[in-house]
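To close the section, here is one more complete example, presented without commentary so you can practise reading it yourself. The ligand is N-acetyl-L-glutamyl 5-phosphate.
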Amino acid sequence: MIRAGIVGGTGYTGVELLRLLALHGGVEVVAITSRAEAGRRVDDLFPNLRGYYELVFAEPEVSLLANCDVVFFATPHNVAMQLVPELLAAGTRVVDLSADYRIRDASVWSQWYGEPHSSPQLLEQAVYGLPEVNRDSIREAQLVACPGCYPTAIQLGWIPLLARGLVAPAELIASAASGASGAGRQAKIDNLLSEVGGSFKAYGVSGHRHLPEIEQGLQDVAGGPVAVTFVPHLLPIVRGIHATLFGRLLEDDTDLQALFEDYYRDEPFVEVLPPGMFPQTRTVKGANRCQLSVMVPQQRDTVVVMSVIDNLVKGASGQAVQNMNIMFGLPETQGLELIGLLP
Ligand SMILES: NC(=O)C1=CN([C@@H]2O[C@H](COP(=O)(O)OP(=O)(O)OC[C@H]3O[C@@H](n4cnc5c(N)ncnc54)[C@H](OP(=O)(O)O)[C@@H]3O)[C@@H](O)[C@H]2O)C=CC1
Ligand SMILES: CC(=O)N[C@@H](CCC(=O)OP(=O)(O)O)C(=O)O
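Output:
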């Protein structure tokens, strides 16, 4: 059994990791942290886990975590980067769900996250954990930086087109909407039911911190500069991201449906829907799955890709478990063969 630790076990991605790992079969969670809930039983805070765990939340200390084979960081940014150097030195492998190691350039990271990076020496060795792009490097990685939720949905939608040079790389537009759990479990007025419910709004229009991550990932695939106009929105639902992507086609004779189907044919967690079927957030709710549709409305030169994920599963904890499976040589789908919850 792989001995796993979770730092930040009281947040939404932390409890989602617990849900997925409870039935994984190859992992025992031996350490879980929360500063606010230290000393409290996990199944007292999360009764959905009763019968699956006897764990008690502990303070986040390296001495506890270094006994694990793998540690998941389900913490806000600027937490993993304080503890990871010591954990790596102790031989522990790390899957970081936060943004701390996603951006290779420390000065770009600081510009968007507003503080200096405290372990920039690890940025080069961190592997960006999008298995559909980096599977081989993830296998050997000691430190995996899991992609953000919007970046997962958006990159998976653009990649087939950029890899084949079929869209204008400097004119990409992504309009994406997320459920409120994307903002985490901390109390914030903006996330109250009476603020979010029955309404729909854009935010971060002048610049969202996921933009440099999206552009970096797409540039790697395109092999050159890429510019994205990215507008996130807040949906009055709990889970789910729907991204609608627009691009100017550079060729008009490619069968885009066939291209997408071929590109993702062997991917266990990305599905291209048949022509005329469009993805919905509810279909992937609770599942480690990205569903995509591609079309060219009115046969003009604008391609539209629609991409949905559950922000907490393929957008965070499910992708983290997928990365762990790859790192430890387990079947990639172990613990992740989940069907979306309808309704
Ligand atoms: N929610 C989502 O859909 C997604 C989130 N992510 C990323 O995953 C990470 C976790 O997100 P989410 O679960 O939503 O966050 P939450 O705010 O819901 O939870 C944060 C957790 O981190 C712990 N924590 C906070 N500060 C510290 C600290 N200084 N040291 C140690 N632990 C700390 C908290 O516990 P305590 O304060 O008690 O220690 C809590 O358990 C974030 O970086 C987020 O951006 C990524 C993709 C999607
Ligand atoms: C709805 C909502 O507020 N979403 C969050 C996305 C947060 C997230 O998960 O960020 P990382 O993936 O970078 O960790 C936001 O826009 O800030």
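Once you have examined the tokens, check your reading against these statements. The chain has a mean pLDDT of 97. Residues 181 and 279 are 20 Å apart (CA to CA).
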